[in-house]
Write a structure and sequence with these properties.
This protein is of the alpha+beta class. The chain contains 7 helices and 11 strands. The strands form 2 sheets. The protein has an 8-stranded mixed beta sheet, sandwiched between helices.
């Protein structure tokens, strides 16, 4: 699979799995607009471009986001169109942040995962207040952010999704979402309580998600990792996930 095809595939999956409230197409670019929380659901995805005036199209994008009181953000994968877009955005005062890895593998390539046997992990098919409160607590989210996250999660268009969590004693110490689209298992919002990291909890919850995916006949698994989260990347490499491509966000400075 060439780079363009791979970027298109995984960003289709990522956009469907974390859906925006509104999508506008602008000469091939995909403009995603939501409640203002999370950059993926509030950014331009420029994998395809059929316009003939780049500056005009950037101006249209900026107006659309500003009219909704949203920051102007382009999500720039390793492949994007037109080829001079990134250079042009930087010249217009955009700043690059949050280098992110898309990591993926076939299920067959996932290595045996050693699990924490003191941990109880659970899969639920419906979003519950318990899970949502745990997500908020583990991330230290404000009410505004968790409300926005809840709206995005409720828009996930697939019936085959799972809200996963792990407990030590009576305390929830990790949560995550697993989503199946086509034959791909996506892992989203995986977070472990800071006081309980490096105890095999993340990999144990991933193992639970993978087994659920296998039960539903998935063939591939993918997730994203912040480029500076070296411990998470090392863990994902350890279990067999491979670095497929990167993306970063270019944000208009105000």
């Amino acid at each position: 699979m060439n780079m363009k095809a791979e970027v298109l595939l995984y960003h289709e999956l990522l956009t469907n799995g974390w859906p925006a409230k509104t999508i506008i197409f602008q000469n091939g670019w995909i403009l995603r607009l939501s409640e203002g929380v999370t950059r993926r659901a509030n950014s331009v995805l420029p994998i395809r471009y059929v316009g003939d005036n780049l500056l005009d199209d950037i101006s249209v994008v900026e107006r659309i986001y500003r009219e909704r009181d949203l920051p102007v953000v382009f999500q720039i994968p390793d492949y994007f169109e037109p080829p001079n877009l990134k250079e042009k955005l930087l010249s217009l005062g955009y700043g690059s942040v949050d280098e992110t890895l898309v990591m993926a593998s076939s299920i067959k390539e996932i290595l045996k995962i050693e699990e924490n046997r003191n941990l109880n992990s659970f899969i639920e098919q419906e979003l519950s207040d318990k899970w949502l409160v745990s997500l908020s607590n583990l991330n230290n989210y404000s009410q505004t952010i968790i409300d926005g996250q809840e709206q995005i999660i409720k828009r996930i268009p697939f019936k085959t999704k799972a809200f996963c969590y792990s407990e030590l004693g009576n305390q929830i110490v990790a949560v995550g979402i697993a989503i199946i689209e086509r034959e791909y298992l996506g892992i989203y919002d995986l977070i472990v309580h800071p006081d309980y990291r490096r105890r095999g909890i993340a990999q144990s919850l991933i193992a639970k998600m993978l087994q659920w995916g296998k039960d539903n006949l998935v063939k591939h698994v993918y997730l994203t990792a912040q480029g500076d989260n070296f411990k998470a990347i090392a863990l994902y490499n350890k279990i067999g996930l491979k670095d497929r491509h990167h993306y970063r966000y270019l944000i208009k400075n105000t």
